[in-house]
Amino acid sequence: MSSQDNSEENLPQQQDDADGGVLATRDNPFANPGLPPHEHRVQDIDERAAKRSERVVAGLFTLSMLSTIGFIASFVAFPVDKIVYVFPIGHVSALNLSLGLTLGLALFCIGAGAIHWARTLMTDVEVPEERHDIEATPEVREEVLAGFQDGARESDLGRRKLVRNTLIGAMAMVPLTGLVLLRDLGPMPGTMLRHTKWAKGKMLINENTHEPLRPEDIAVGSLTFAMPEGLSEEDHDFNNQIAKAALMIVRLQPENIKDKRELDWSHEGIVAFSKICTHVGCPISLYEQQTHHVLCPCHQSTFDLTDGGRVIFGPAGHALPQLRITVNDKGYLEAMGDFAEPVGPAYWERG
Asked: Which end of the chain has fewer CB atoms surrounding its CB within 10 Å, N or C?
């Protein structure tokens, strides 16, 4: 018999290891040897080392909270269009860069703190567990619950109050970044719609000819579109501004105007109303000369220009805002201020 056969014969049929494994046997020479002996960490035997680890974890959680505060401060401090040069990236948005760095640092510090806490302060004793059926018996459920309670106790969450409090603070503050980002979905309606480029003394400029309008340029029954003086198509925010300030001008017979305020705000029967429909903000462009009604092409909201621009049909919720106009000493039509009420669709802050 060979030496190899002699060695296999010398193996016992089965022998349990002290660490829970099974030693090699003749029938199973590659049996599970079990877990290696447990080695205690320095934090397990030295409370000063444990305190140092606790301070490191708390410092990471505190840095996460400061980063969250920095995220909010960056959102307030940096304008959207501010560009900075960062080597070697190049020119980038200061707002995007600061938001990314502060949010990334806040999340990283929470993760790093949790990992350092688990590796240095929580229990690291490995316990083998045999596989079992998916459906647990009542005994197993009680055992799992007891294990969860033991884990919570061994995590030292109750005793390590510094770690616990800073973790709670960091986890509570990180969601604030999401709330702040909600503000970037767009401007508040009250800020966006309440004010336009119209102001006292600004002349009415024909949108097609880009020339100031005189009363004699407006014929009875015609519909003219105008924009405020100083607004240029070359402006970077032209589309945003004209979407609020677009004006339509109609000349009526003064005796046909039913609303007294509309008559007072007009000039020789020339009335100026916002071109923006008060339903969902579509531009109004259809004018019926005989009835003096204007129609929104999107959802057929209809407004009476002889009666303060009130709604007479369709889903629009309120009348078209009117712009008070007059004639300056050069004979040009000009505004006497901004619209008295916000233009465009209704919103909940509107009075």
From this structure: C
- Specify the CATH class of 191-335 in words: mainly beta
Q: Report how far apart, in Å, the C-alpha atoms of 242 and of each of 181, 191, 192, 238, 245 are.
A: 27, 16, 12, 6, 5
- DSSP 8-state class, residue 35: P
How far apart (Å, rounded) are the C-alpha atoms in residues 113 and 118? 9
Task: Give the whole-angstrom CA distance, residue 17 versus residue 33.
Answer: 7
Q: Round to whole Å and give the CA distance between 284 and 278.
A: 10
CB-based burial label for 316 (10 Å; 0-12, 13-18, 19+) = buried
Residue 133 confidence (pLDDT): 65
Residue 62 β-bridge partners: none
Q: What is the DSSP secondary-structure string of 119-142?
A: HHTS-----------SSPPHHHHH
Domain boundaries, the chain: 42-185, 191-335
Element containing residue 227 per DSSP (H, E): strand 223-228
- Burial of residue 150 (CB within 10 Å: 0-12, 13-18, 19+) is exposed
HSE value, Cβ hemisphere, 13 Å, CA-based, for 299: 15
Q: What is the DSSP track for 310-340?
A: EEEESS--SPPPEEPEEE-TTS-EEESSS-S
Predicted TM-score (pTM) of the model is: 0.52
Query: Which residue, 71, 330, 344, is CA-closest to 193?
Result: 344
Pairing relationship of beta strands 293-295 and 302-304 according to DSSP bridges? antiparallel
